[in-house]
Amino acid sequence: TAAGSYISSQYAGVYNVDMSTLTSLPSIPVNATSFKASSNSITSLPSLSSLPLLKLLRVSNNLLTSVPSLSALTALQILDLTSNQIASFPSLSGLVALQSLNLSNNQLVLFTPSLSGLVALQTFNLSVNLLTSFTSSLSGLTALVTIDLSTNQLTSFSLSLSGLTALVTINLQVCPLLTSFTSSLVGLTSLATGSLANCALSV
Asked: What is the pLDDT averaged over residues 101-119?
């Protein structure tokens, strides 16, 4: 069932159509600041090119396989697309306000978008995908608090973590093919948890 052209909201700019048996969405209202459409059967998203006020987009637990361009979402702070079937992901260029990116439990084998310029990013979650490698530079992500790449098919991790002074948690557990971790942890003054449990690393 598709939603109608107008989706009611309790507060101006706040739209919630969670658990509404939807299979598609109309255009998201241009005044939207928050849009939630989780736990439906949505297979694709409408254009996201004219949403200058949108701060939160949550479309988790659906049937998405891809995502349209995000480059116009300059106010977006939280993007949650967990538990879909996403196999490819667009550029993150322009998302200067983004604080949380959650793509957990999808079908990503590769993650190619650059993270450069995401100066506000605090939480980055690609857990429970099919990643065989992760090469996106983390340089300049000085606000980053959590990196979660757990439960993937990574074989090595060698990215520079230098300068990530806000980083508290890096999670690489349950990557059964991970045999090499060569990233230096020197200078990570906030780091409290680094998990490599259930990997293939030699002790």
From this structure: 96
Contact 98, 75 (CB under 8 A): no
Q: What is the pLDDT of residue 10?
A: 60
Instruction: Report the chain's mean pLDDT, rounded to a whole number.
Output: 93
Q: Report the distance separating Cα 194 and Cα 191, nearest Å.
A: 8
- Rounded CA gap, 120 and 166, in Å? 11
Alpha-carbon gap, residue 80 to 34, rounded angstroms: 12
* 24 contact partners, CB below 8 Å, separation of at least 6: 2, 3, 42, 43, 44
- Which residues lie across from 24 on neighbouring strands? 2
- Cα distance between residue 150 and residue 164, in whole Å: 19
Distance of CA 137 to the CA centre of its chain: 15
Amino acid at 51: L
Residue 146's DSSP bridge partners are 123, 169
Nearest partner of 118 among 138, 133, 90, 104, judged by Cα: 138
Between CA 182 and CA 202 the distance in angstroms is 12
pTM for the model stands at 0.94
Residues ≥6 apart with Cβ < 8 Å to 8: none
pLDDT band, residue 26 (cuts 50/70/90): confident
